[in-house]
Write a structure and sequence with these properties.
Blueprint lengths: L2 H7 L3 H12 L6 H7 L21 H19 L34 E2 L10 E2 H12 L3 E4 L6 H13 L8 H24 L14 H14 L4 E6 L4 H7 L5 H8 L23 E6 L5 E6 L9 H15 L8 E8 H6 L1 H9 L11 E6 L2 E2 L2 E2 L20 E5 L3 H18 L3 E6 L17 H9 L3 H11 L5 H24 L22 H4 L9 H11 L10 H16 L4 H14 L3 E6 L14 E2 L6 E2 L11 E5 L5 H13 L3 E6 L10 H8 L2 H5 L6 E5 L14 H6 L7 E3 L4 H13 L6 E5 L13 H5 L6 E2 L11 E5 L3 H12 L4 E6 L1 E3 L3 H10 L5 E9 L5 H7 L9 E5 L10 H15 L2
Parallel strand pairs: 4-6, 4-7, 7-8, 8-12, 11-12, 13-16, 13-17, 17-18, 18-20, 19-20, 22-23, 22-25, 25-26
Antiparallel strand pairs: 1-2, 3-11, 5-6, 9-10, 14-15, 19-24, 21-23
């Protein structure tokens, strides 16, 4: 049989490919493979044959294939047989890695096989080939990478790992550095445990090798051009990272344990604070070769993986704003728990974002503190996958499973990971196999649920002692060095504790308003209702309106799109601007002023309701045309259709806005109801970050809202839920009724000298309502109006005032105009929160003869603004007489159009009875 038939029968597509390459160009394969294919010169015991024609294939020839299969088997499955678990026996997997699995035996161990060329040995004994792949793939590091679909990446990883067998070779000085970092991590935890007995600290004990790992990531990253790392992690080990990686002063951390509070710079700002293991920090560190690296640790709530998209958004914002699109200058590091990375859905969402144009950050370094227990849940009950890191396969990212007790292997793995990230700009995962010395917190008893595991952990030495023994045994250091290093650091911690006891109040060390936030300030009560100038000169407005409504004549657009833009151009000519034009003009004017505008969400380029059309696709191609790109160069306008995610995308945009307050950053829900998929971001960041962490944010959430008979999931943006989160002027809620007021509202976000999240309930049916239009003077001569009074009713004869917000105004207006009711006034509250109390008082005073002041809403009585207004306005000068609304319900809206119409008519009729 010929060579190719033989190779195919041997079931080795890999060798088949090599043979095809050899036939095309013999020099395209390694010399050893050339020799292999040149007439099957198989070495010992091989029967040579002529280069062409049939050959007699010896047993040795078949075993060459078996050896190759063994090499590929180790690369594919070697990670299943590693020595990576410091405290448990690994699960058994079948088939195993015995020689017999690959059709080999002990009798073959001293036979020379040409297959050694595959691992860089050339013709070599099976014993040596097997030793190399055993050392590389089955010791302290297990590598998963063969599912990657790019052969170059696979070869890069194989070559790097097999070249030194995943066996790091460090100098004595490098080993001492690793030891000192481990010592700091271990001693810091034991010091806290001794001095602050019983206090929660969510210690790193058992996973202290994280600290030398982070140190090495910073050093290696700096050598490869990284200037900044953005870190996100939950509570496990956070204090250790703050102290020993970020450089947060030990005395400050001890002061927080002592219960010292941060000095109240202004009682009006109502800073509430948070527990110490949720706090963020930033610092600058200097590497061994003198490079300055900026480190940031994002604040994080107890919702373990919520910080992931925040970190990615901050990183992307800095890539765009600070590093001119160069993602090699900054890298995100996400530190996960094993149960969290396997169990939290936002991890999957963030992973799916990692390569998308609007969200990529050049690759994230993921480190899993895999302590094998989630609170009390055993790992077998925490996931269905083999590994907690199986999510990595979604993005074809390599995973390194590392024994946390082997500090040198940990450092080696993270260095390889950083190098891979910088070269290929993709995610990489380090699964740090370790254990948790105590329970979920230090007061917890882990033996209640894991008695056998914790018997093993009790006897197990900490990673520092394990490494110290190794270094002493190999004579890199002696026992006195170990003791001296430990004593020196303990003494220093004691000094810092003594200083902490003398501190009365803590000073904020990392103020908010510096760097990109310089020139802005925290908002006080007086700032909230101070009118700011959002008007635009008419000449400039008209010039920009012309730019964004003119399509190039050399491109072929869909007929309906051309007609749409003709209609928009007519709006300029006829001085009648609809909602879409009001919105787009807000973006155009901000871009013209040098600001950045970023919008993302599901289908935002066109708009769910086909009103925006910010990005146009040409009729005969996939080419895109962006009218707003004509404004001021266009590079500051970014609008991305997002993946089908609310949680991760809203978190990403919050992070983006956090890093760049000079960008108008917008997330739009497909329907207002859908934001509840991101409720955790709203609760933990949007509404509370300023109170917990003194972190302002100007993110805009657009939530299409309005009762139009479209059913329970396409009606309500849940105004009531946002209002119940409102306090201390923490965010702005608006429900505008005119394009111009919306224009001013969006512009106000960047014109003000402070930032507040804006939740705006945007219209659906009003997008094309003939009365929902504004004139040029509304944009050029008026600013944002929190309240819009009635201009039709006669104040001297008005007996009833109807207060409302949003779409229902036009239903009420239609009834008022049809019946010419000048005795009933309709007042629109455009800014729901902070409530414009002084303006409402002035309106009440204007209608002196009115005896009824009703709140009218189309939402159910237990929803919409009423529950909040009923509570906060009770017993005040602006309390409402009563409410007119739909009846209470557990569902936001009916799904039956006839019922919806009847309900709506009942509200309108009752308002005018």
């Amino acid at each position: 049989m010929d060579k190719l038939t033989f190779l195919s029968n041997a079931d080795s597509s890999y060798i088949d490919g090599l043979y095809q390459a050899y036939k095309a160009d013999p020099n395209s394969v390694d010399f050893g493979w050339q020799k292999f294919f040149e007439g099957f010169d198989f070495g010992q015991g091989a029967e040579a044959s002529a280069p062409s024609g049939d050959v007699n294939v010896s047993d040795h020839a078949l075993k060459e294939i078996n050896v190759l299969n063994m090499i590929h088997g180790y690369r594919d499955r070697g990670h299943l047989f590693t020595q990576t678990n410091p405290v448990r026996e690994r699960r058994k997997y079948y088939p195993g890695k015995e020689l017999e699995t690959f059709g080999l035996s002990e009798a073959d161990m001293d036979t020379v096989f040409n297959a050694g060329v595959e691992v860089g040995l050339g013709p070599a004994k099976l014993r040596d080939i097997r030793q190399l792949i055993e050392d590389t793939y089955c010791r302290s590091i297990g590598a998963e990478f063969r599912y990657i679909r790019n052969p170059e990446k696979i070869k890069w990883l194989q070559d790097h790992m097999e070249a030194d067998r995943n066996q790091p070779k460090y100098t004595v000085d490098q080993k001492k550095r690793i030891f000192k970092k481990l010592n700091r991590a271990v001693v810091f935890e034991s010091f806290l445990g001794t001095k602050f007995l019983g206090q929660k600290r969510f210690s790193l004990e058992g996973a202290e090798s994280l600290i030398p790992a982070l140190d090495s990531i910073i050093e290696k990253g700096a050598s490869l051009g990284i200037q900044e790392f953005m870190i996100g992690m939950a509570h496990r080990g956070r204090l250790n990272v703050l102290a020993n990686t970020m450089g947060k002063p030990y005395k400050t951390i001890f002061s927080e344990f002592e219960g010292k509070m941060y000095a109240e710079e202004d009682p009006e700002l109502q800073f509430g604070g948070d527990v110490k293991y949720h706090l963020g920090y930033s610092s600058d560190v200097t590497t061994d070769d003198g490079k300055q690296i900026h480190l940031s640790l994002a604040p994080n709530p107890s919702h373990l993986e919520t910080v992931d998209p925040i970190v990615e958004g901050i990183t992307r914002s800095k890539i765009d704003m600070k590093y001119n699109g160069d993602s090699s200058k900054i890298a995100p590091i996400l530190i996960h728990g094993d149960a969290a990375i396997a169990g939290q859905g936002v991890v999957y969402e963030v992973t799916q974002m990692s390569k998308l144009e609007g969200y990529r950050t050049g690759g994230t370094i993921h480190i899993v503190i895999n302590n094998q227990v989630g609170f009390t849940t055993n790992y077998k009950d925490a996931r269905s996958g083999t590994y907690c890191t199986d999510v990595a396969k979604i993005s074809s990212s390599p995973v390194f499973h590392v024994n946390g007790d082997d500090a040198e292997a940990v450092v080696y793995a993270v260095n390889l990971a950083v190098e891979y990230r910088q070269k290929y700009k993709t995610d990489v995962y380090i699964d740090l196999l370790c254990y948790r010395r105590y329970g979920h917190n230090e007061a917890d008893e882990p033996k209640f649920t894991q008695p056998l595991l914790y018997k093993s952990i009790e006897k197990h030495p900490n990673p520092k002692d394990v490494y110290a023994k190794k270094l002493v045994d190999e004579k890199s250091i002696d026992q006195s060095y170990v003791k001296d290093v430990e004593k020196e650091f303990k003494d220093y911690l004691q000094e810092q504790l003594n200083l902490a006891k003398q501190i009365e109040n803590l000073e904020e060390e990392i103020p908010m308003f510096r760097g990109a936030w310089k020139g802005l300030h925290a908002a006080k009560k007086a700032d909230i209702f101070e009118t700011v100038d959002t008007k635009v000169p008419a000449k400039e407005f008209l010039k920009l309106a012309g730019e964004i409504t003119t399509l190039p004549k050399d491109k072929k657009f869909f007929r309906k799109i051309s007609k749409l833009f003709e209609d928009r151009a007519a709006m300029v000519k006829n001085d009648s601007y609809d909602w879409a034009m009001g919105e787009l003009m807000a973006y155009a004017t901000l871009l013209d002023e040098g600001k950045r505008v970023r919008i993302s969400g599901q289908d935002v380029q066109r708009g769910t309701f086909s009103h925006r059309h910010a990005v146009l696709t040409l009729e005969d191609s996939e080419e895109k045309y962006v009218p707003l790109a004509n404004v001021n160069g266009g590079e500051r306008f970014n609008i991305y259709n997002s993946l089908l995610s609310e949680y991760a995308v809203l978190g990403f945009e919050y992070g983006y806005a956090l890093a760049n307050p000079q960008a108008l950053t917008i997330w739009e829900a497909q329907f207002g109801d859908f934001y509840n998929g991101a409720q955790i971001i709203v609760d933990q960041y949007l509404s509370s970050a300023e109170t917990k962490w003194k972190r302002s944010n100007g993110l805009v959430m657009m939530l299409p809202h309005g009762m139009e008979g479209q059913g329970p999931e396409h009606s309500s943006g849940r105004i009531e839920r946002f209002l119940e989160l409102c306090a201390n002027d923490n965010m702005i809620l608006a429900n505008c009724t005119t394009p111009a007021n919306y224009f001013h509202l969006l512009r106000r976000q960047l014109v003000r000298e402070f930032r507040k999240p804006l939740v705006v309930f945007t219209p659906k049916s009003l997008l094309r309502h003939p009365k929902v239009v504004s004139k040029l003077t509304d944009f050029t001569e008026v600013n944002f109006q929190e309240v819009i009074d009635d201009t039709y009713a006669k104040p001297t004869t008005v007996k009833r005032v109807l207060f409302c917000s949003g779409k229902i105004y036009y239903d009420l207006l239609e009834k008022q105009q049809a019946e010419k009711r000048t005795d009933i006034a309709i007042v629109r509250i455009e800014q729901l929160y902070p409530a414009p109390v002084d303006q409402l008082k002035a309106i009440r005073a204007r209608y002196k003869k009115a005896t009824e002041f009703f709140w009218v809403q189309e939402e159910n009585e237990n929803m919409g603004p009423w529950p909040y207004y009923c509570r906060v306005f009770r017993n005040t000068d602006v309390a409402f007489t009563d409410v007119i609304a739909r009846a209470q319900s557990g569902s936001p809206a009916t799904g039956y159009m006839k019922k919806h119409i009847a309900q709506q008519e009942a509200i309108i009729n009752k308002s005018f009875e």
